[in-house]
Automatic annotation (TrEMBL):
Cited InterPro entries: HTH_MarR-typ (IPR000835), MarR/SlyA-like (IPR039422), WH-like_DNA-bd_sf (IPR036388), WH_DNA-bd_sf (IPR036390)
One Pfam family, short name: MarR
Highest taxon listed in the record's lineage: Bacteria
Annotated ranges, domain HTH marR-type: 17-149
SUPFAM superfamilies xrefs: Winged helix' DNA-binding domain
PROSITE patterns from the UniProt entry: HTH_MARR_2
Organism: Kitasatospora arboriphila
Protein name: MarR family winged helix-turn-helix transcriptional regulator
Length: 161
């Protein structure tokens, strides 16, 4: 085999890759559709508010929130602006270091997360966990960690262990 020859995927690898690709496209769209239909928000908006809801004092630096929500700082900034307009998030300078901006989940934002979470969790359970056995769920977690680590060996991606 020539040193320049690509390592082509086997038939089984190709089937796995196509199944993963389909899931990567369809799952976010399905989750987004449920959240839009039931709560009037996008999946990314929910990720931002849920991330804040699980943080200390429901507050995070925008840069930390961008990593947690798997989005760029620019995208996060636009989304937080929309969430501010709805009264669900507010921004404030970081009192420990004014070079940073904090995103804070407001009481109304907390109420929105609390109202939205049950439907979102039900959809995640229906689409991801219910079709899998416990062993497959553990395998999925391990696979997710391994692929995420291959993408980002520094571990800055959320969920890496």
């Amino acid at each position: 085999m020539d040193a320049e020859e690509p390592r082509w995927l086997s038939e089984e690898e190709t089937e796995s890759w196509l199944a993963l690709g389909s899931m990567l496209i369809r799952l976010p769209a399905a989750l987004d559709a449920q959240l839009q239909r039931d709560a009037g928000i996008s999946h990314f908006e929910y990720q931002v508010m849920a991330g804040l809801s699980m943080s200390s004092e429901r507050t995070l630096r925008m840069s930390e929130l961008a990593v947690l929500a798997d989005g760029s700082l620019s995208r996060l900034s636009h989304v937080v602006k929309r969430l501010e307009q709805r009264g669900w998030v507010r921004r404030t300078p970081d009192p420990e270091d004014g070079r940073y901006t904090l995103a804070v989940l407001t009481p109304a934002g907390w109420d929105k997360v609390v109202a939205t979470a049950p439907g979102h969790v039900a959809e995640v359970r229906r689409l991801v966990f219910d079709p899998l056995t416990r062993a497959q769920q553990r395998q999925l977690r391990e696979i997710g960690h391994r692929v995420t680590t291959a993408i980002d060996p520094t571990g800055s991606c959320p969920g890496t262990a």
